[in-house]
Amino acid sequence: MFHKKSSIGVMLLLCFTLVLSACAGKANTTNNESKEEPKKQATELKITPFNPGENGLFSVSSSLIEGPKEVVLVDAQFEKSNAEKLVKMIQDTGKKLTTVYVSHKDPDFYFGLSAIRKAFPDVKIVATPATVEGIKATIKIKNDFWSPILKENAPTELIVPEVLDGDKLTVDGETVQVVGLNGADPSHTVLWVPSKKQSWAAYLSTRTCMSGWQTTRLQRAVTTGVKF
């Protein structure tokens, strides 16, 4: 009889211990889960292109990169009238234009800056070192040639972008990478939006430019593992 009661007591003690262990394990799991920080979701960016088509002397595209509150403009058009269309597009978003990125040294990418600056006086205008150098070297002679042709569509102010600090732009904290600064041809860069896995280049019309672009793609794939 004594042994039977003793066995029952041992079994009850064992069951009680197992219950306590299970409760402790559940508590630890709950505590660990509560310590885990929620993953930050990438900001959704919207990319809207603008191309004047037949309404422009040069069919050069600009792009609006929009976040929830901010906009970055890529290239400012050639003619004042088309730059003013960009101004209207930006104003219609109801968001703040923080930056204009000029992707190439030719005036069809930056002559419209005066119209942009007039509408958004605090906007930051940037370009790569090679692009800034190219614009500085040619802006006066380009303006002297084109102003009589463009007439009222000529720039009212000659604006040279600032040199881009680093190798990226940001839109509401989301990165837009400038690829090719140290590539085969730094005067022809590519923008890469990691969150959308989208890239685009301003000016790759010649065989030399395409060759440089292919080399830059290869270099980035080797160094970062990212293909685009």
TrEMBL record:
SMART domains linked: Lactamase_B (SM00849)
InterPro entries hit by this protein: Metallo-B-lactamas, NDM-1-like, RibonucZ/Hydroxyglut_hydro
Keywords annotated in UniProt: Signal
PROSITE patterns: PROKAR_LIPOPROTEIN
Domain Metallo-beta-lactamase residue range list: 59-226
Entry function: Counteracts the endogenous Pycsar antiviral defense system. Phosphodiesterase that enables metal-dependent hydrolysis of host cyclic nucleotide Pycsar defense signals such as cCMP and cUMP.
Protein name in the entry: Beta-lactamase
Taxonomic source organism: Paenibacillus alvei TS-15
Source taxonomy: Bacteria, Bacillati, Bacillota, Bacilli, Bacillales
